[in-house]
């Protein structure tokens, strides 16, 4: 584990995208103020897809959500966070666009660097941590999907994150285009220098697995001395993981990155019943070198992770540094509500 000065909190790097990453960031910001988000950049739908197609920028939507999750909770910053998350209504050219997406696209055009643009908006939002793209270029996801042809043994190639996420078939495997994309150097450093790395939850094939398909990021995740924690989804998602058990999620991750190992797998206790189902999941986790923690991490009555409960589940894996200024229970920031 990386050694830090005694006045620094532990470093946490969280990887993912969309609402899953938002939940993780909302949780880990309660445990440390040194949080880095590494975000997928393959979205091709909605406002992000439009800006990507028209301007050639990396899709900003998931990056914007990560910034909002880590934004300061002071009254003046809360107004800016609300503006960044605001989505235009109406039926004109701006309809459906997020203000934050457009700000990031504009900053990127002006300064010529998406990471610099993110850092600039992060300062406006009072972030103590950092939000980084997985890659400095926009990526595409391509998947082999079964069940779309009359012969169930035949797979069809589908391209695009939205198409993969909404397919009525069964996703067998995903690839990134280009096949060996560059990693954001700062993201690689954040993984290597972290005390704890958290992967998931989120859309398994389009937000979680892509991180292990970027060669330099895969190498960093494989060799980092950080404690690695994988958070499983609360339920299979219609489309890309329909019918998947918790065990199956681990198997497909291992298929895409056979040498990838984690230390701990966090699972909501209510989603995997005691008995054979847990035995199978424990066995699958052991192939990744991990133990399984069954905890109450769901928001009551929903299939979303509760950031406060997730923080409790993750806290035991974040070893305190003697004499550190890590926030204690009395200093924890208010959990940001879901946007």
UniProtKB/TrEMBL annotation:
One of its GO terms (molecular function) is LPPG:FO 2-phospho-L-lactate transferase activity. One of its GO terms (biological process) is regulation of cell shape. Pfam families: CofD. Its main location: cytoplasm. It comes from the Bacteria. Keywords: Cytoplasm. Gene3D superfamilies: CofD-like domains. It is found in: Cytoplasm. InterPro entries: CofD (IPR002882), CofD-like_dom_sf (IPR038136), Gluconeogen_factor (IPR010119). One of its GO terms (cellular component) is cytoplasm. NCBIfam families: CofD_related (TIGR01826). Required for morphogenesis under gluconeogenic growth conditions. Belongs to the gluconeogenesis factor family. This is Putative gluconeogenesis factor. It comes from Rhodococcus coprophilus.
